[in-house]
Amino acid sequence: MKFSYSWLKSLLPLTESPEDLAEKLTMAGLEVESIDSIGTCIEGITTGKIESISPHPNADKLVITSVSDGKNSHQIVTGAKNISVGDIIPVSLPGSVVASGMKLKQTALRGVDSFGMLCSETECGITDESEGIWILPSDTPLGVDFVEYAILKDSILDIAILPNRGDCQSIWGLAREIAAITGETLSLPKVSVSSTDIKHSYSVQSQSSHCPLYIGRYISSINKAPTPLWMKRRLELCGIRPISLIVDVTNYVLLETGHPLHAFDDAKCASKSISIIESTKKHSLTTLDSQKRSCQEGQLLICEGNTPVALAGIMGAENTEVSPDTSAIFLEAAYFTPHIIRRSATLSGLRTDSSSRFEKGTNIETTELASQRAAMLLQELGQATVSNHVITCKDNTHELFKSKSLPFDINQLNSFLGSNHNENSIKTLLTTLGFTIKNKQISIPSWRREDISDWPCIAEEIARLKGFDSIPSTLPTQHIIQDQDSLELTLTRSSEDFFVHNGFTQLNTYPMVSEDDIKHCKLSTDLSQYGLANPISPELAVLRPSLLPSFLRIISHHSARQQHDCAFVEVGSHFNDNNEEHVLAFCLTGSPYENTASPDQRSIAENSPFIHLQSLLQRLEAQLGYSFTLSFDSPDSWHHPVQFQHFSIGNINLGSLALVHPSISSQFNIHHPLAFGHLSLTRLASIVATPKQYRHFSSFPSTRRDIACCVPKSLSYAEILSHIHTYKHKSVVDIGIFDLFESEKLGPDNKSIGIYLIYQDLKQTLADEKVNKAHQRLCDQLVKQLPLTIR
């Protein structure tokens, strides 16, 4: 937000340079993002009146003028075409400097001496281009310092106003803050209005709790006077284009007090009945920017009769727009709650100077002051008549009309800050900011009631204005709290590190996805419960029930750019059964190895991402200290019908790993095998892990036994392995496959699997008889439990 240094200086005697002031404001929490210096080199421009114009004897396109500065007359030769006798114009006399940096001196033009230059807006630094000499209003005094009079030299501070500091969105508010920082005395203009007993037929009715205060003022007999130069310049310096006296006054008061106003043309208001409503049906209106806008349900509207005449707090409509010929207005000054204006501006796609101030919060007690200030300026500049019949629609029960106070204890504040400020200096500082301290209670000013909530907020005000450097550095007197990480956080770090060390890339995706992505993944979710009321975009409209859609969207993006080798991991949130869970999700497509010795090796790697992730998951569970139970029943909607597995501990389902069904991956234009797994860390953290213990290796020899069995092709090795783990002897230390083949003798639906088991004891050499007995018992259980035969 832009602020004029010269405007601030008119309210308090600043001795700091703009740069020093910017540093102090930044240290006080009001970050100055930039300083734009205007007209730094301009000097010596004054004002003069053209007394005569005569032809140049040696040039048809030049004329000789006599210009009076109120004391002396100066001969100036010019080629301007838009001047006439009696015009008041800016004049650069010898020794002065114009915006381009050129220093004026006496010179001869085609044989005639010229003692200066008639200036256009370009020479004054107002615009880059101009059509002629700048003709000033007829009441402009002669011989004045035009650089100061027209504010040709200034510094513009661009300040980032924080969302909780709506009180600093105005010149007066920022000047109050600067007064507290510098200790200077603030001097604000006195506001007084001379009212006349003029009857009018306006009435106001508020039908919304989001407008607790609405003030309407009838102002008539406004002259068609131009906006004075000083007001135009202040508006321009703050980034607002001057339009007409009425509009410029409302904009000027907006910058001055921070409170938006709106003027309705009295001649265009037929019923004179103003109402504030929350739209219950779709309305349309054409706003002042000539754009036709549709109003959504719940938006706050200002209506005249049954016709919408403004988007409340944002922008008025063309149907009641004031024009240069307007002589009577109904002036609106109101307070609208921040969140309703923010929502309305977002729905309309329209953010204005007015809406930005209402969104951050305006001072409800400044509403009447802003209305009076605008009426006073219209009286002074346009000789307007102000009716004393002011319409006020007010909800006295609203929270903002109630005073607010907090306990004040200087010892508590100093203890909290670690400072030793004396009570008198603190009281002086806080009084400058508008606080009132009495009987150990501090009253919060109206413009800070929504910001200051408890006594630590008072401590913050003291710290930022006194300066954090004023707090002495001391060693802590309390013991440092040795906080312990939660088990879920430990699992998160360990699992992320594990996958990163195995070549996976971490993702950080939004927890929202599109409805289409959920449907493509065949996931079920309650859109009415998990759909966002006001999504950023349709692509981020629903809280995801799984991280799968997010992963598929990222892999699709990579695949479209010929990046088919993807290994991703993320710990993110998914939402199911009214719960948010933290989930470890991981996926693999393409080859997990950057370099392979042969095309055959790469082909094997690319076509077995599921097996590779299985291996990683087994190592992960061992590292985390858990032992998962695998199951192979009921594939999920996105699972491959064969290559999938669920894992759990006891009755707690932890997640699953599967090859993504080709019909789903193809929806995202992914045509390579893709394996995806997810593990609920929230659920896993509720289970106590088996503590890791050191176990020495055996010094006794091992022995090997093999099982060659004929099994149906539908029976997976994982299911056989699960039964082996259930019935194996405790001395089995390793299990694996050594052979797998199919033949005509076995039949088209069977295959042969060769499985080895390594037996080893930590305390003794195992006898063959004991090993054979244990091995036979395992074989008998496998034949009994599974549809296989031992060969």
Short summary of the structure?
This protein is of the alpha+beta class and 791 residues long. It has 22 helices and 39 strands. Helix 6 packs antiparallel against helix 9.
How would you explain this protein's 3D organization?
This protein has 22 helices and 39 strands. With 791 residues, the protein is of the alpha+beta class. It has 6 domains: 66 residues, 2-Layer Sandwich (Phenylalanyl-tRNA Synthetase, Chain B, domain 1), CATH 3.30.56; 110 residues, OB fold (Dihydrolipoamide Acetyltransferase, E2P) (Beta Barrel); 199 residues, Phenylalanyl-trna Synthetase, Chain B, domain 3 (Phenylalanyl-tRNA Synthetase, Chain B, domain 3), CATH 3.50.40; 65 residues, Phenylalanyl-tRNA Synthetase, Chain B, domain 1 (2-Layer Sandwich), CATH 3.30.56.10; 198 residues, BirA Bifunctional Protein, domain 2 (2-Layer Sandwich), CATH 3.30.930.10; 88 residues, Ferrodoxin-fold anticodon-binding domain (Alpha-Beta Plaits), CATH 3.30.70.380. The strands form 10 sheets. Strands 27-30-31-35-34-33-32 form a 7-stranded mixed beta sheet, with helices on both faces. Strands 11, 13, 14, 21, 22 and 23 form a 6-stranded mixed beta sheet that branches. A hairpin with a 2-residue loop joins strand 33 and strand 34. The radius of gyration is 40 Å and the shape is elongated. It starts with a strand and ends with a strand. The mean pLDDT is 90.
